[in-house]
Amino acid sequence: MVDYKQDLWPDEIKTTEIISPVTIIKEQGKILGRKTNNIVVGEVKTFNSSTKLIDFPFTYRFVLVCSSINYEYRLFDFAFPIEIYPIKIIPDTSIANELSLSPRNPEIKIDLEEEFIEILKKIFSAQKTVKIITTLLAQSQDIKDES
Asked: Which domain of life is it from (predicted)?
């Protein structure tokens, strides 16, 4: 008789130290919220698109959200395969221009976690990003002052 309860799985299967890009970006969205007293936060949304990102099974959009004025701004789309890398990012057009990406193909391909972190820093520090956040904060203050 066959012992079907015998462990047939290899010993290498265990929890991993790998951090998903979604986890990294969600944490950055929370950090933005803390910096802005939750007036502007970053949110990751599942994104189904006909863009070139669709060739990866995990496709998302990162948006800046200002609830007080009911506004969202797409900062970038990103996608990755089951193996996580390479990650593809397509930033907002203005940010792509700031990063000197080709207007015809503004896609960034990232092969390592360290590169991913550096690209996120560049996107978050872009003049367009900072301008959007400060403008949302100002407009939110206008709404607050009216009430």
From this structure: Bacteria
Q: Do the Cβ atoms of 107 and 86 come closer than 8 Å?
A: no
Q: Residue 27: which of 44, 39, 47 has the closest Cα?
A: 44
Omega before 86 cis (within 30°)?
yes
3-class DSSP assignment, residue 13: coil
pLDDT given for residue 5 in this prediction = 86
Q: Running DSSP on this structure, what letter comes out for residue 49?
A: -
Backbone φ/ψ region at 23: left (φ over 0), alpha (ψ -120 to 50), beta? alpha
What is the Cα–Cα distance from 136 to 68, expressed in whole angstroms? 9
**Contact at 8 Å (CB) between 133 and 40?**
yes
**What is the dihedral sign for C-alpha 17, 81, 112, 46?**
negative
Tell me which residue has tokens 């990406």: 101
DSSP annotation of 99 reads: T
Walking along the chain (147 residues) 10 residues at a time, the average pLDDT comes out as 81 80 96 96 82 74 95 95 93 92 88 95 96 94 64
The predicted model scores a pTM of 0.86
